[in-house]
Each structure stands twice: as structure tokens, then as C-alpha cells.
Amino acid sequence: MKISYRKIIFWVLVIVVIAVVLVRPGTHIQYDYRVETISNKCTFDESPEQDNRAVSNSIVIIMPIQTPTPCYEVEGKVSSVGTDLIVDLDVKEKGEVCVECVGITVARVTISNLDKGTYGLQVNTPDKAIITTIMIE
Asked: What are phi and psi of 116, to 5 degrees?
């Protein structure tokens, strides 16, 4: 059986077209992030409001999280899907003697070294989820 060069070229082109159509490279976002606890208080104390804002090439998130006592610290991670950034926050008990009151633990998340553009932002905590968009100019 003899195969012509035209048939070989045809099938190579078909495979290339299928690969380009079916295997689309995704957008990969380059960034650094830091999650930190900035305060712990009883709920009757004044606590900051939830806030998301662009600062230079970064997104800064302030997120109060209700906790059983004020003796908790924030842990978290940031991941991305396309141009959406997903921030998953959780709280962990410090394991120290603590005042008995319902607490507010305030997290600050800084996502830095972002390129200019519009980003979807989802922040998940044990007691709420926030979904918004933020533009880096």
C-alpha cells in the first residue's frame, strides 16, 4: 500500500487543527500572595468592614471573620482559574487562654505582582463568600 505525500500532509494538518481547537492553552496568572491576621477582637468592639481594593499592581483584601472567641488566627491560600482569583480563608484556634466572647478575627490578604487588567475575585471564609471584580490599572 502506497501512501501519497498529499495524504500524509492532509492528516498531519487535521491533527494539528484538532489539537489547536481542543487543546486551548489557558490564561495563567503570575502573582505572589500573603495572608495574615491583623487583629482579634470581641464582636462588641469596633471592627473594620470587609474591603477589596486595587493598590498599584496588587489587590488588598480586608476580611473580618466571626469566630467562637477572639483567639483565632487566619490561614489561607490563593489560586487562579483563568483570570479569576480564588481566596480560601480559614481560621485556626491559637490554643492559648482566651477571654470568653464571640470574636472577630480580621484577615488581610495581599495579592501582588499582578499585570494590568480586570480580575474576578472570590473570597471564601467559614461564615461567608464574596464575589466581585477588581481592575488593576
From this structure: -60, 145
Contacts of residue 49, defined as CB under 8 A and 6 or more positions apart, other chains included, come to 62, 64
Structure-block grid coordinates of residue 7: 495524504
pLDDT above 80 (res 16): no
- Indicate if the alpha-carbon torsion angle 111, 128, 124, 47 is positive or negative: positive
pLDDT of 20-71, one tens digit each?
Answer: 555 544 557 889 999 999 999 998 767 778 999 999 999 999 999 999 999 9
Q: Residue 111: which residues within 8 A CB-CB, separation 6 or more?
A: 31, 32, 33, 58, 59, 61, 78, 85, 87
Q: CA 104, CA 113: separation in Å to the nearest integer?
A: 29
